[in-house]
Design brief:
Elements (H helix, E strand, L loop, with lengths): L2 E8 L2 H17 L4 H22 L2 E10 L2 E10 L7 H6 L11 H9 L2 E7 L3 E9 L9 H12 L6 H99 L2 H31 L7 E4 H11 L7 E4 L5 E4 L1 H17 L8 E8 L3 E8 L31 H11 L4 E4 L5 E8 L8
Parallel strand pairs: 7-9
Antiparallel strand pairs: 1-2, 2-3, 3-5, 4-5, 6-8, 9-10, 10-12, 11-12
Helix pairs in contact: 1-2, 2-4, 6-7, 8-9, 9-10
Length: 450
Amino acid sequence: MPQYILKIEINNELDVVLAYKRAMQLSERLGMQQANQTKFATAVSEICRNVVEYVGSGSIQYSLAEVAGRRYLEALVSDRGRGIGNLDDILKRTDLVSYNNRGTGILNSRKLVDLFEIESDFERGTRVRLAKSLPQSSPAIGREMLKHWIQEFEHEAVISPYAEIKRQNMQLLEVLEQLRMRNLEAEQQLQEIRRLNTQLQQSNQEINKLLEDREKQNLKLQDINQNLDAFAHTVSHDLRAPLQNINGISTALEACLEAGQLEEAAYVFPMLRQQTQKMDRLITSILAYSLAGHGNLPKKALDLQVLLHQVVASLNVPATFRIEIQENLPVLYTQEIYLYQVFSNLISNAIKYHDQPEQALLQISYELKPDFLYFTVEDNGPGIPAERHRQLFNMYELGHSFPRENSSGLGLSIVRKLVEEKGGSIWLDSSGRGSRFTFTWPTYELILEE
């Protein structure tokens, strides 16, 4: 049940001013913040002014109430007028502009308080209940304290409406200034938040860039690891041919010595020395390739006519296998190990996988175009099925490229990597019998004849 404090009769503007003042005094003594004091008192004066303007007389009663465990300062404004006929329409409005400004006091008051109730009956008047919540620190008010307050109010000097309104205006101006300062503080805080957000976005961009760089480095590292794997297989792949030749010559030399054929053994010895020299040159080149790195590998003037004869001589070519090399091949200023491995792999594959060695033919040629040299290695072997063309240069596992036990399956992937290192490309044409491998090489490495 509400705890009664005091009651004021509302008959004129001076009573409205008094109701406002009492609302301010009570809310202040009950510990409300100044902004809430002004809101509550303004709501009270709006309703009391409606009573004077539309009815002529009424009353306001202040009480302390408790709702759902919270304490409120409550003002009950009542009159005995004819009632508000369009109350429901007024309460449904969402704006504060109405016809002839009727109802604006009700809408304004409802926005200023925490609890708002209104009842209006025809010829029985209107009752408006306004309540503002008290802070948790608000003191407990006993009967003696309320009695003391009322005695103080009764001994106050006569209120001057002009002075009181001026004081109210000064309080409103003070509240507005506080609000302005708070708005300035809020704006500064928003600017600081925007600045921090900008820094955060920049930091996020830097982090994203670092992540992208790390991802690029990871991809680069993966590529390097794959190249290392390919290089390890390359060593075994490319050294096998000269080792086989050395083994064959050693066997022949051993047979000559056992048979006492010294003259024939003397003829075989240079062949053995030649193969060991070729193997030493190949090992030296491979070591240079692994230690110097792709970009730092030294270049030299390279006569492809001589290089191709060296490659063919290092391979185990059957006597019936015919190899035709185009005359007048160009001279390039490039890395020897690159072209040596490219031609060695392509030619050795053609020899290794030919199904009719007695009729085998391998042709090596080139064509000069504006940006690239086009080299072709073509054989009349069994050909390669079309479904394998796309994956042919990506094979790393044994037996996937060609079904042979002595193949590492890496030869063509090594060729592709070396050609692409020079900015060129390689492709295969094979339909039915025969295979034609074509790769490009940059013309800027071509040494022109004077």
